[in-house]
Please model this.
Amino acid sequence: MPEGHDAVKFLLRENDIPTAWYNIVPDLPFDLDPPLHPRTLQPLGPEDLLPLFPMALIEQEVSRAPAVDVPGRVLDLYRQYRPAPLFRARRLEQVLNTPARIYYKYEGLSPVGSHKANTSIAQAYYNHCEGVRRLATETGAGQWGSALAMACAMFGLECSVYMVRVSYDQKPYRKAMMRVYGADVTPSPSPKTAAGRAILASDPESPGSLGIAISEAVEDAVAHEDTKYSLGSVLNHVLLHQTVIGLEAQMQMEMAGDRPDVLVGCVGGGSNFAGLAFPFLKPALAAARRRHSGTAQRAGQSTPQGPRVIAVEPTACPTLTRGTFGYDYGDTACLAPVAKMYTLGHGFVPAGIHAGGLRYHGAAPILSALVRHGFVEARAVRQLEVFESAVTFARSEGILPAPESAHAVRVAVDLALEARETGASPAILFGLSGHGHFDLGAYESYFAGQLKDYDHPQAEIDRALASLPKA
Amino acid sequence: MPEGHDAVKFLLRENDIPTAWYNIVPDLPFDLDPPLHPRTLQPLGPEDLLPLFPMALIEQEVSRAPAVDVPGRVLDLYRQYRPAPLFRARRLEQVLNTPARIYYKYEGLSPVGSHKANTSIAQAYYNHCEGVRRLATETGAGQWGSALAMACAMFGLECSVYMVRVSYDQKPYRKAMMRVYGADVTPSPSPKTAAGRAILASDPESPGSLGIAISEAVEDAVAHEDTKYSLGSVLNHVLLHQTVIGLEAQMQMEMAGDRPDVLVGCVGGGSNFAGLAFPFLKPALAAARRRHSGTAQRAGQSTPQGPRVIAVEPTACPTLTRGTFGYDYGDTACLAPVAKMYTLGHGFVPAGIHAGGLRYHGAAPILSALVRHGFVEARAVRQLEVFESAVTFARSEGILPAPESAHAVRVAVDLALEARETGASPAILFGLSGHGHFDLGAYESYFAGQLKDYDHPQAEIDRALASLPKA
Model:
């Protein structure tokens, strides 16, 4: 490799950690449909959410303030691993022989190896402040469960994690990590909850799913006076907490003297994507509001529209690209709030062959609406090309990406290769949401040729979509 | 947990990455015994090392310069993950209710999760500059193999890793990581080398050992014109590269307005320990040189002696605390250079029950001599207390330590608890050399009650020591 083409890091100083989260809601040029009560299908009031969340988070969930202050103790904990670096991927550019400039914002340096700590710390803090003693949550492969377990340890909260059984059995390591942090980990479906017992009654061998585990965690929280529920993605307040990613990235792109033409992030529930993208969407949203309100532009005045924004998901769980935009339950047992979002149906379960995470049947309501209104494009990618790009990235940049994050790598690589064809030289910024040190089993399967590409069959999606509530 | 007692991070700016490594050799108040040729047992000349190492590293191995410049490209790659943070462990102090001030220098943010990248990058660079096409090395659990594989990918070198068979079979994940970086991984002992074949002939089921894997890698390098050998610890130039750790830590302790009274690091071969400790040993070494040369101190002038320095090893591989200080081979097959060091005998193999790494039979010659001359204390700790402290640390500081690094955590905790008894308030600085995200299997065994404390039987150590060369 020729000299002088190594990665360039743009590292902020500690004082540059954002002290307020960015709330996109007041900037949206459209109204969001309200979440509904799972039993009545009537709009939810804050009081309906009180069994699940502390008041501070409920307020954030419905807030229309343009920004929300980051509490000092949360900032203190952010400072352990933030500001997160933003890199120019010069070696990757070289390997791809592309005129594109590729940047990535790296969230893998948190104690739990992913962006999830940005919200788990905030959520544990607010619960702690309101006297909550215990949090219940669900986890798939364990990324979110580990992050919440860590944050609970920081604030002396108990943590009860319902872990999708197939992961619990096949991935004992993440379970061990949650136990290091003192969490109680239960394979889901479990006999501990009515939701779990119902599933087990009809299928004692059920491998579980995120939707089922959410049902169990919600039920646990409702059943215990001292317990609240915590979700690692999807909800407005979770997306809010993640905006530290994009706010830092904006400062870092400025340091780099560049502006992203395209922005890419992977989507499971949408929180890492939103965290990076939302602050960059401001100009496009403002322009749309002006169009809406008929505010004339003066002649010759150009409006900065901000970057093109692409959300990437797996073809094995194609929520944004093949789902329906409509009201659906957040969980399998229909205990969680009903939200207007892109969904594959709350009974949807991705195929076992899929190794790359991002398995939730729905997507964050705000993100869904942004896709629906054309502010965000959605793309689905297949897993073999995802792992191939992950390997290319690791060999050129040194960092081994989480398979989830590698979905964003894939599309960034595709855009860079397109640029080579067209001769354009766009600045591409993507989110590298976590490292893959926990996911080497998936890489092992990839090298062993055990992974296959998988497009979910339409008939199954249609079947799952038939279960949407008639709101 | 009360407010306002979170960890405090001392983060240098990028420009503060040391641009020269610190060479302790000219500061030593004693002479080092020369390494010997494994066949002749005569002092080694640089020409004897040429089949194994590029000239730049041979020069560093014997250098008496007080400092060695870090090449620009190595600095560029260091900048991807350095400066590494130094933390004040306020929450740990609170949990321990100690008057001690506890600091730790954290090396787990490198792309491979440990300090090993500090030397793998430098070694790959120098080999690349001298036209080497391929590097051969050994690895135990895979930490060093991953680090060298990553660095080779950065410089376009091939990488051949001999991995101790028991780890190869039981830890497929690290193998997958090396493969992501493009390395070729062979279980050792292997039929590829004469050394491997000899072992297999006498024991076809041999689980392998670091000593055997070193023999194979050395033989591979000698047998191939385009291949050199690379070692991840022990050698002078490896320790030299790691001094970026201590040089940064010195600046950071100054930022903290504090000075360490005690310094603690874990020891396998000794490179992470040396990297942190050597820069802090300067005043003690200078004072000893003055005593040696009879330079009088003026009355009333106090000499800064620097901190007390403690090297920590497992009781399962007690090189510094129960080994002999003498000449021994670096490997099992007696192909590697013979060095004067603390050793348990080159045939020593730690018991399988030991889960915490740090399994090498010897220790770095410079470190060994410092222990021998009383500049460094050595302590051995048992694995159950090590894992116990690792869990305490993770729950208070958020970072999950590698089991190796947790040996240092244990002694830091012990010192902090002692301080509570004595009422002293020392500043304790320890090295946290890597994260434990790869080592969750060991934590799982710990929680499952499968780990036992293990003091290696004296008879076996005596037997292994009987194999020392008569130099």
